[in-house]
Amino acid sequence: TAFIVPVEQHDWLTAIKMINTLLLSGIEIHRSTSPLKADGLIYPAGSFVISLAQPKMGLIKNLLGRTFYPDNYWTRSKDDRPLRPYDLATHTMAEFMGVRVDPVNQLPDGNLEIIKEPLKPSGRTESGSAGYRLDGRLNDSFRAVSLLLNDKIQVFRADKQTGELRCGDFIIRQAPTQVIESIAEKTGVDFLPLDSFSEEGTHELRRLRVGLYQRFYGGNADEGWTRLLLEKFELPYLTIKDSDIKSGQLSKKIDLLILPADSTSTIMGEFPESSRRYANYPPEYRSGLGKDGLEKLKEFVNRGGLLVCLGSAGNFAIEKFDLQLRNIVAELDSKEFFCPGSTLKVNFNNEHPLAYGLPENGLALFYGSPAFEILPGNDSEKYRVVVRYEQRDLLQSGWLVGEKYLSRAAAMVEADYGQGQIILIGLKAQNRAQTHGTFKLLFNTFIR
To answer: Beta strands 306-310 and 420-425: pairing type?
Structure first.
């Protein structure tokens, strides 16, 4: 009958973004001005109600309801091989964004008013005796922190839960009132009062200098989506080309390099001479690190640099850096394992700094993703799992064949390498700049 978006959310500002996107799609949405009762539950005032009794019913169900891609005669070949959908197997916006949406079988009782224009939240500001605190669960808190750092304002982060603070919350001891009010107005983030502060259990925050690798040949959609995401959240970065890496001077420009999802052969530039990528260009215009670039990249990490590998770029790191990891699904036939763009249930180790601000359990988009196993060896202590797939009943929406291969597999791993680190984010943490529910996995790599 309807969907309710409760006011109580893990990331309320992301829920507002979802509501505004639905409004732009011509969907009618109401907001409650009093508590609502539906299916035996009470929802606080401010919750949103989206009725299915409207022309866009199909779109609403596709974006907000749990969906399963059909697995039948029409979606398999004659030899029973799954046929890949044109795009993802699910487009469940709420699941991508990490927004709680409850389907209800009856229209709720309560006072409702129609929303006529997009919502623009304005953050509140209230200083405490020890300064301000920002909710580390909000994606937009990272934008606010980046703006504070632009103004040379000192920011701390909580490493453990106390009475006032959650693990991952941000702390501002002092800042000009006009700066705080301006950032709260711009981002919608509340600057809440902090009444006590202890250096124990906190650390001063650093925003690492970020580089985003851009290959020369053609375009990489994953690189473009990552660039879009960083720009939307006002997180500074430099575009890094093959020549920057081969120069051996990378550490003078950046502290962390993001490798967007790509094949190992494309990153390396290992194309056969028969390939048009090889034949049509003079050597100086061919894309790829080559052996020299790979050695320079290894030197960068060995000397303390960070390498973040998104999606399939993790295969490059495993092979070329000789990591003690295996991509479990790499060699499986599609009859054994098939997951063409689906939301799967995961566990976030949210006491690990790379998963600060995330819930203990959530959803992640699997789309051509590697899944990792730490292999036995003498250096196992150098590998830490940050995100892991649940043991069973993994599929939330979409299509999954061969669940057993992902059971308790690692979706994100942090590995020590020399004095630096390699972080492999196998799940699609920033796919199309739409998977808001997992943005923080990327943000935490350089806001730390």
So the answer is: parallel
Question: If we measure between CA atoms, which residue out of 223, 204, 222, 206 comes closest to residue 214?
Answer: 223
224 found inside a domain: yes
Is the pLDDT score of 395 beyond 70? yes
* Segment 400-420, tens digit of pLDDT: 999 999 999 999 999 999 999
Q: How many domains does the chain have?
A: 3
User: Shortest CA distance to 51 belongs to which of 118, 115, 104, 14?
Assistant: 104
Q: What is the pLDDT of residues 356-382, one digit of tens each?
A: 999 999 999 999 999 999 999 999 999
- The b-or-e profile of 422-438 (16+ CB within 10 A means b, else e) is bbbbbbbbbbbbbbbbb
Residues 272 and 336 in one domain: yes
Residue count (the chain): 448
| CATH assignment of the domain containing 188 | 3.30.70
Q: How far apart are CA 447 and CA 442, in angstroms?
A: 9
* 277 band by pLDDT with thresholds 50, 70 and 90: low
Task: Report the predicted TM-score, pTM, of the whole model to 2 decimal places.
Answer: 0.96
- 273 shares its domain with 417: yes
